[in-house]
Amino acid sequence: MNEPLFRGCCCALATPFDPLGEVDYGALGRMIDFQLDNGTAALAVCATTGEGATLSEREFEGIVSFAAQRVCGRVPVIAGAGKNCTRTTLRLSRLARKNGADGLLLVTPYYNKSSQAGLAEHFERVADGVEIPIIIYNVPGRTGMTVAPETYGRLSTHPNIRGVKEASGDISLIARAVKECGGRLDYYSGNDEQTLAVLALGGKGVISTTANIAPAQMAEICTRWEKGDIEGARRAQLDLLELIDAMFCETNPIPLKYALGKMGLCGDKVRLPLVAPSEGSKKRIDGALEKFGLI
Prior knowledge:
Number of domains: 1
Largest sheet: 8 strands, parallel, barrel
Oligomer: single chain
Shape: globular
Order of helices and strands: EHEHEHEHEHHEHEHEHHHHH
């Protein structure tokens, strides 16, 4: 059985934009350094939180390459290369590998609404064509697709498919999938508030949005669990719920980008069709940031 690509908290890194809407590499460097200084186990770039759906192919390559060079092997860099076209996903996956990515985060194809057989063939086709490990990203709230436990079981036999980011929110489905795979896939929570629940089912960690602003605190849930401090992990999870809820009071990464701007880590600009949070959401986010001592 292969070692996990990472254990603990992986930050699903936001993509900073300058006032003109271009990628702000100066801010990106500061954000990466902030993560490395605060115990992040891996970085996922160009995925949901990184507004990957609105990035050009040139920007995708630039961000992956920049992150890989900045990290310089200290933690894995995982590229969000999943699209709803298998050929495009394979092309982006190969570009990610070429530009230094250590792994791939591949969302289930959206809009097409394939069968479970189609889902399996999609991931298998990409896995056959790349040399770096794949983490499947199951987020039905965004894609309209759910990976069935039996499909996970089939995919778990492919040597290049190594893990799952589970953001279905369905703990029963996750439990059945973990049982179906028999330890052949590494499970990561895709919902920050369910990190401890997934760890308790045998998960290896979390791919986290909230880690952008609270990396050490999110990592603490995982490190305490790994050390056998179950009560400490439970307390760390519950203590963060208010901050996590604030980060998802509107569509991710709208609240996060606003929070990052308030903290001075990067600008708060998001790309259309996303827009700035409402005034009510801003007040809620401000309150959470102040309570947790982040501003």
